[in-house]
Amino acid sequence: MPIDPLVRSRHSLLAFCVAAAALGSARAQTAMATDRAVGATLVTVPHCKEWLGTLASPEFEGRGTGQPGFEKAANYVAAHFKSLGLEARGEKGSYFQHVPWASSKVNAAKTRVVFRKGDAEVCTIPADRLTGSASSNLAATGDVVLLVVNAPTPPPVQPGRQGDRPGAAAASIPGLDAVDVKGKVVIAYVRPAAERTARQTAMAQFAVRQGLQGKEAAAVLFVQTEAVTGGLRGGSGMGRRGGNPAAAGAGRSPVDASFGGADFDAVLVGAGLSKDMLTDAPIATVLPLQGTVEVAVEETQAPAMNVWAVLPGSDAKLKDEYVVIGSHLDHLGRRGDTISPGADDDASGTTGVMALAQMFAKNPVRPTRSILFVCFSGEENGLVGSRFFADNCPVPLASIVGELQMDMIGRDEEENVEGNQGEKAEDNRNSLHLIGTKKLAPALHDLCISKNEAAKFDIEYDQEGMYSRSDHANFARHGVPIAFFFTGLHRDYHRPSDTPDKIHYEKLLRVATYVYDIAFELATQSSRPMIDPALWEKFRAGSRNNAPEVPAAPMQPGAPSTGK
What we know:
CATH architecture of the largest domain: 3-Layer(aba) Sandwich
Structural class: alpha/beta
Helix content: 25-40%
Largest sheet: 9 strands, mixed
Number of helices: 13
Distance between the termini: 40 Å
CATH superfamily of the largest domain: Zn peptidases
CATH class of the largest domain: Alpha Beta
């Protein structure tokens, strides 16, 4: 129910007083409408430091989907929603939508690699002397082929958020296409190169796997002269019944195992070779050995959930329409002994969602439409959680007037692993990327620009390559207007060094306040953003996600009913 005019007048006076007191941290609030100004002052920098510091703390172990740290983070956000009195409309009255997710654990007692020469055992390598990952069982035996390859020089990295992954810019291995490995156990050695980086080694291994695809090797292992550490760990991925075969398959990739040190020495000696031959060896050498690879994994369901809550709107009719405010809760998690805390990616965006939830919940005036807050799982695994949410949406997709996504909103863009050569953080203190708003709904773009008159960011549009790389993309695929807010990549992107001490909390809060103002307007204005039919056809023509003929959101008047 709309607020009484007398009460509104009192709130206006209160808003002025509170805003004046908070002037030092409220630069983006100077021209904010009085119906929302109070809420904007009720989140401070200390709040943001507390929330982000907790999410990126060692206790949460990088919030890897399917890992215990992610479950702790999900419970933390849910507790925040509950403390604000937001409605829990998830499964069994919770704040969760569970995403099918499986975790596999290697059974060390049933995992080993054995090399034999005739009837004599040359070497047995137990699970604890292997390293890498395994998501499925493997039992393979065959003659042994030694591959010796050079680490390829990586081509220039192109813009795209997967640039730090081995497959993003893999080079081919010359001569590998002619190698016959059918039914063989392959052990692949990558020759050391001057100043070879871990990324180049990973790229070489990826290139070997790519080159062996379709050649029907019984098993592929990697070897190195140094002893390996870390052990063979299980994998994690979307469950078989998750409705996303590609994601499920990615979670069950082939066994990726390596061994080295004394074990590699024993294999070479058993084959009558020495390390010296590795310098000039041909790309493939058939060894007089037989290899047996046995890997056993045990699969269990793992914690993966989208955390969501609703603040009901005040209008009896319009409360059935929603403004969605999202971030991704997950990061890379724990990998062996390494934890990537993901302070900016995306504890910053999740902090933004928590901030907006508090602003809306504590603001005296409630908007007419409802607000749906959601923190997604599995973004780092291919936008899995948001795809599951959009494909199994707990509210009608047609009822969503817009999805506002915050991903990495706590830093300043600078030169990074993907490029931006020469870009300096100090030159981007006030910059903010606005992504995707020109693709579908011009009215949402115009709203974002008009609200920036108060926020006063230097809006940039040079990161449209990021459009498909965060969770808003799964809403856009259905024809829901979106806006993606992003402050840019930096040197700590996807590194253990992405820590809370490097976050610019004042900037994070400014971005959150700016998004709050946009969201409040979306949730209050009489009309809703419509899809431009020409833009929709252009989007569909370039979409790899089989966008429907007709978008979920209404199209502008005059559009054909078929969407063609």
